[in-house]
């Protein structure tokens, strides 16, 4: 070998070694939560991921307990109207500036003024005071569950966002300044990726990985194939499980372990209580009896679920009460309808209401609920209730739902949704509550007073009794009908350890992002 050739070989080896040393360590996560706009606060899916880069004040641990995240403690006044949050020291934005109480005060007030789903903040927050790393919020009425509420509102850097006039409509492909262990470096709609980079100013437990790639897929089959091929390390979809139909084939690869846990998320049938005949509780009871729950459990969960109870709240939630299980009895459903004055006088198979017209309900759904909608239509038709399915995109569903332009709708709860407001799913039904996923259909004073009582008390024995009252109210009045309870299924790469799951966000949490690393 000549001296010149030897030098070239040496340089090539050196360059290769340097490139290998510089190669970034990447954790890869598959999801079906597609980002449709690079809007940090305006896009639903981006909002699911941004609590990693912009942590809320509080978080939930694996046991369901609320613990500190950006804040390490809080104090509450005796009347539950004044909450003071104490921020952890030595927290820095990814641009090197320190996190302060001003960032927290700005963020919470911004949500109340600019984010429609956080309208309750604007309506109830009357004063905000900052004293160094202490932030005090004073509300115009008691609010017992504020620590739970503040697990979902990401804190933003005031020095960046105060100059943005319309936060919801602001878009950028990144980077976005964050103060978590990672910040959002890039949102690439063409590649279908959100890329987190390690925060250079992070002072907490050092992450092993330099970056985390979130890749979204068009459908469950594509995501499952990506995992089976080894291209992804895990799968996460907010408030939903890995596709049940793909679990066995993924196990067969021998590359993944499966974490299966009960969840408070569910699919349920909601009613527009402003419309007849849905305002008639007997009509709702007849619908409840017409549904084939065992078939729903089998078709929708493939054995990873169970028949729900009429109290709506699943056993996975603290405060669960064992109410009557939902019953499938179409003959009883027909009898209830007949006794309530709904009869098929002309023999066309569809019952008429008191006005003499055929009872045909508009079933409003988002596209992802099409299979469940067809089953439900079949069950309702069998007892004489006509059904027209109207399938729309998410934003159209939000608009039609908020303007009560439907009769019945299929939707779902999330673990966060079950906790929000007064807890135990009250946020989905209280007519005073706003938000994309809520129905706000119940204006019954008895129910509203019950919600207010929960929010005002600090007595745990009373809370236990209120939880029972809420579930009994659901069982008696059926503002919503749970179709099945289910388990969450999360696959993860066997060669990586440190996975941490909480009831609120599953593995999408700071513990996972700072704790995962290759098995030694």
UniProtKB/TrEMBL annotation:
CDD domains: PBP2_NikA_DppA_OppA_like
Chain ranges of the Solute-binding protein family domain: 65-423
One Gene Ontology term of the molecular function aspect: peptide transmembrane transporter activity
Principal subcellular localisation of the protein: other
UniProt-listed GO biological process terms: carbohydrate metabolic process; peptide transport
Gene Ontology, cellular component aspect: ATP-binding cassette (ABC) transporter complex; periplasmic space
PROSITE patterns, per the entry: GLYCOSYL_HYDROL_F5 (PS00659)
Domain of life: Archaea
Pfam families named among the record's database cross-references: SBP_bac_5
InterPro entries for this protein: Glyco_hydro_5_CS (IPR018087), Peptide/Ni-bd (IPR030678), SBP_5 (IPR039424), SBP_5_dom (IPR000914)
Localization per record: Cell envelope
Keywords recorded for this protein, A-Z: Glycosidase, Hydrolase, Signal, Transport
Family (UniProt): Belongs to the bacterial solute-binding protein 5 family.
Record-linked PANTHER family: PERIPLASMIC BINDING COMPONENT OF ABC TRANSPORTER (PTHR30290), PERIPLASMIC OLIGOPEPTIDE-BINDING PROTEIN-RELATED (PTHR30290:SF10)
Stated name of the protein: ABC transporter substrate-binding protein
